[in-house]
Specification:
Elements lengths: L7 H16 L11 H14 L7 H22 L4 E4 L4 E4 L2 H11 L13 H8 L12 H10 L7 H8 L5 H5 L1
Antiparallel strand pairs: 1-2
Length: 175
């Protein structure tokens, strides 16, 4: 299998084609591109760059690399002491010690904070749907309020006694 070294222009156009596929609904339930999507991406890239020789494997690998880089940057941006700067289009960090500790712990570097990543917001629209971000998370009290507001029955006394007891569930879970 031959490798393809992507130019910035090719990558920019490729992300545009990925965005089109998302709009067309060519994403499976799990948030992954459907297999036929890669054929379409390769065809569109070859149409736009006739001398590129894009193959399906090139497109699969590019999607994988873009997704890895996006997820790595998103994970960093979500950590305490880090954030996303829309103006500079990069992940920023509060101080060098936090960055050094994070990079030492992480080991792998798919993105370096402070380095511009102009495709980040576009990739977020493509890949963010498949990431758990905690937006739907609720604490126990909020969940109880929501259940009561939606008209569901409250727990009866027997259920409440079970949850208020020091009942050990570990034995039943093992079975």
């Amino acid at each position: 299998m031959d490798r393809h070294v992507w130019t910035d222009e090719e990558t920019e156009v490729f992300v545009g084609f990925m965005e089109e596929l998302v709009i067309e609904g060519r994403i499976a339930d799990a948030g992954q591109f459907r297999p036929e999507s890669f054929e379409k991406l390769a065809a569109k890239m070859n149409e736009r760059f006739p001398s590129g020789g894009f193959q399906i494997t090139h497109c699969k690998n590019k999607v994988k690399r873009l997704k890895e880089k996006y997820q790595f940057a998103a994970d960093i941006a979500g950590c305490s002491g880090f954030g996303w700067n829309d103006v500079k289009q990069c992940v920023v960090v509060d101080n060098k010690e936090i960055l050094a500790a994070y990079m030492k712990k992480q080991g792998v570097r798919l993105y370096t904070p402070g380095k511009p990543f102009p495709l980040y917001t576009r990739l977020e629209k493509i890949f963010c749907k498949e990431r758990a971000n905690g937006d739907a998370a609720v604490c126990g009290n909020d969940a109880e309020e929501e259940v009561q507001m939606n008209g569901y029955e409250e727990m009866d006394e027997e259920d409440t006694d079970f949850f208020n007891s020091n009942h050990d569930c570990s034995e039943s879970l093992l079975q």
